[in-house]
Design brief:
The complex is a heterodimer of chains A (about 250) and B (about 160). Chain A has about 250 residues and is α/β, with parallel strands linked by helices. Chain A is built from seven helices and nine strands, in the order H-E-E-E-E-E-H-E-H-H-E-E-H-H-H-E. Chain B has about 160 residues and is of the alpha/beta class. In chain B, a hairpin with a 2-residue loop joins strand 6 and strand 7. The chains are: A alpha/beta (about 250), B alpha/beta (about 160).
Chain lengths: ~250, ~160
């Protein structure tokens, strides 16, 4: 029996089909990536005037900008290019030793300190009455913070020095300040903090913080691997940026 | 009889186009990988500022944990010359964003706290407007915000 020859399929129009698909994708997609600066805002709570606590001046680094794009850092006229260096100084001044009384202090966090605070919180929660759930959540969050610090001590194998909990970078703008300036200031502050974190992470784990974060957002395996390290670095160099109400808003 | 025949037209050989689909497919795959789908057509003008610390939000988008809000002047002049929000395909104001976030969270079946709001804002929008939007978001406990910015070096002067 003679074999019948299979006729060849004409692939001449394949290119046309591919072009059609290509043009479809060209039209329906965009090249620009969705990128942005992530920020966590604070919870809104009712505060009585007598509950407002004064924070020592040394703990705050206020960056102000007006509608004309002029900057002040701690009431001194400054340029955008100064922000990074100033924030760095804010963190590093007293990190190793108490030298500058105008910058936030560091205190030693020991296992004993964390343990005693956790027992105290537990006691406080046990003593809370009905209708105090808001306080309980607040205290539980605080307890978690101490637990995190215990883990840090365990990983490091020794107590560590931590910047004062109220130390923060404040950003105060005016209602007519442009968005671009907000992003630029945030960028500089974030860059300073991330540089410090990179240095710390390189020293402790031999990998930079930015790389760890970048890899853990795209790769779930890495996310699990780096989660503890990222948590540790974020406690050693905390990022506390507060955006204040515009100065000229009633 | 001559060895070289002159004046006789020879037929041009046809160009082999069998590799053409491969080339086009290669281009196609490149564009499929390198671009993201445009799910909303902007109705406000947004020119994003630059930032070198901006992070790629695509992972959140793929995990469906992000809402995009555009902030800027309307593209069509007939729609006014005031800065507006674009909530999906419609214009909105800071007062509407809370309700919109709640609806979106319901649609997603996720807690409102876990969904990031990305404010894709025009570089020239005033901070006072952004502040109003942020306060409205804080009121509904949508506390995670991303300030949209293009990845790139900022001008320091």
């Amino acid at each position: 029996m003679a074999k019948r020859e299979i006729p060849e399929i004409n692939a001449g129009s394949m290119a046309d089909i591919a072009f059609l698909l290509l043009i479809f994708f060209l039209v329906t997609t965009t090249m620009d990536k969705d990128t942005g600066i992530l920020r966590q805002m604070s919870v809104k709570i009712e505060i009585q005037p007598d509950q407002i606590v004064d924070v020592a001046k040394r703990n705050l680094m206020k960056i102000q900008a007006n509608a004309q794009g002029q900057l002040m850092i701690r009431k001194d006229i400054a340029q955008l290019s100064d922000v990074r260096e100033k924030v760095r100084e804010f963190y590093l001044a007293n990190m190793l030793d108490e030298v500058n009384p105008e910058m936030p202090r560091y205190k030693l966090v020991t296992k004993y300190f964390c343990d005693s605070n956790i027992t105290e919180i537990d006691k406080y929660i046990a003593g809370l009455g009905e209708g105090m759930e808001a306080y309980e959540d607040f205290k539980l969050a605080e307890r978690k913070e101490y637990e995190k610090r215990l883990r840090v001590i365990q990983t490091l194998g020794k107590p560590f020095r931590e910047i004062e909990q109220v130390a923060a970078v404040q950003i105060e703008l005016q209602t007519r300040t442009e968005y671009e300036l907000l992003v630029s200031i945030l960028n500089e502050v974030k860059a300073a903090i991330n540089d410090l974190r990179d240095e710390k992470a390189n020293e402790l784990f031999g990998i930079s913080y930015r790389v760890m974060v970048q890899q853990s957002t795209t790769n779930p395996d890495k996310e699990a691997e780096y989660a503890d390290w990222i948590e540790l670095i974020e406690i050693l160099i905390p990022e506390r940026i507060v955006e204040l109400k515009p100065a000229d808003k009633q | 009889m001559s060895k070289f025949r002159k004046g006789e037209k020879r037929a041009q050989p046809a160009i082999n186009t069998s590799a053409l689909p491969d080339i086009v497919f290669m281009l196609l795959f490149f564009f499929m990988v390198a671009t993201t789908s445009k799910d909303i057509d902007p109705i406000v003008k947004v020119k994003r500022p630059k930032s070198s610390e901006a992070i790629d939000l695509t992972p959140f988008k793929q995990r469906n944990e992000i809402d995009f809000v555009f902030v800027g002047l309307p593209l069509k002049e007939s729609m006014g010359d005031q800065v507006r929000l674009q909530l999906d395909g419609q214009f909105g104001d800071p007062e509407n964003i809370g309700g919109w976030k709640k609806l979106k969270a319901e649609d997603r079946g996720k807690a409102i706290e876990t969904v990031i709001t990305c404010l894709k804002t025009d570089a020239e929008v005033n901070y006072g407007y952004i502040y109003d939007v942020k306060e409205a978001l804080r009121d509904v406990k949508a506390l995670q915000v991303a300030y949209g910015a293009e990845l790139g070096k900022i001008k320091l002067d």
